[in-house]
Automatic annotation (TrEMBL):
GO biological process, one term: transmembrane transport
Alphabetical list of SUPFAM superfamilies matching this protein: MetI-like
Transport among keywords: yes
Span of domain ABC transmembrane type-1: 97-319
GO cellular component, one term: plasma membrane
Topology with respect to the bilayer: Multi-pass membrane protein
Residue intervals passing through the bilayer: 12-31, 103-124, 136-159, 189-211, 251-271, 296-319
Keywords recorded for this protein, A-Z: Cell membrane, Membrane, Transmembrane, Transmembrane helix, Transport
Localization per Swiss-Prot or TrEMBL: Cell membrane
Keyword Transmembrane helix: yes
Source organism: Natronorubrum bangense JCM 10635
PANTHER family to which the protein is assigned, alphabetical: DIPEPTIDE TRANSPORT SYSTEM PERMEASE PROTEIN DPPB-RELATED (PTHR43163:SF6)
InterPro entries given in the database record: BPD_transp_1_N, MetI-like, MetI-like_sf
High-level lineage: Archaea, Methanobacteriati, Methanobacteriota, Stenosarchaea group, Halobacteria
Name of the featured protein: Binding-protein-dependent transport system inner membrane protein
Amino acid sequence: MAFGKFLIRRLLQGVFVIWGVVTITFALRALSPGDPVNLIAGQVPDQSTRDQIRQDLGLDQPMYVQYFDYLGNLLTGNLGYSYNQRRAVNDIIAQHFAATVELAVAATVVAIVIAIPLGVVSATRRDQPADYAATLGSLVGISTPNFWLGIMLILIVAMQVGVFPTSGRGIAFHEAMYNLFRYGYVADLLSWLSYITLPAITLGTYFTALITRLTRSGMIDELGKPYVTATEAKGLPRTLVRYKHVLRNTLIPIITVLGLQLGTLMGGAVITEEVFNWPGLGQMFITSLRNGDWPVVQGIVLFIAVAFVLINILVDALYARLNPQVTDR
């Protein structure tokens, strides 16, 4: 019963957050300069045509009427119609969503593969050169701007060394996996890996540093607990104790942060996608913002907000199942 109340409370909070995002983006649209009719009509001088376009879009209505009409459309799943691309925003998001998810998940995998071993080494070799190197690397990773790192990777790794492509996506992950299992084409999967490696490293660098520091602090706390001394006193190998018991207990807060940061990575992929010309929601967001295509901008912001809220609710629910004391907060 307590878990049900906890889940309902989180859902209501999520609805309130999404409503706030919708209201703020709509207000920014209303306050932004420019006329959407100019984007649609172009150089058409006929005022009657322009007035008809304005009437068809509902732009001749008072702002509060437009706001409630927009809310009504959202409740039916209609995110609007792109002024620039002349198609539904739902279709645009569906087309670019997979690329953003691929990049966010790949960045998370990069962070996990690098950060957890570094954190373990740093904690088990405390105040030794390995610990100092891992701590310094974490500090550099947190302090490095993603756009600068991406440009450096393109200039040095892609252009000078010539190992990876400089931009683009090549092939979608699901297409590469389909060709692998259906026809045995390994080349498509390798092509996908070559295109996503540099963007994933760029996006996952900050996340890697964060997880490294979290793993280190969690391992140090666990290593100081009595059960570690007791298991080692029984004759269990130190490596087994550290990786089977200590690391497993440390992973609980790390998994929570991973779930929360996945939504952050989806929203933070905007700059990385623009640098690497990755055809995801971030690049489409920048392009639409430049063109003044506000229905697409609003749709992408709302979609990312909903994804972030749902991921947070899912993580909270899983954590509440693992630790029932959370439901009392």
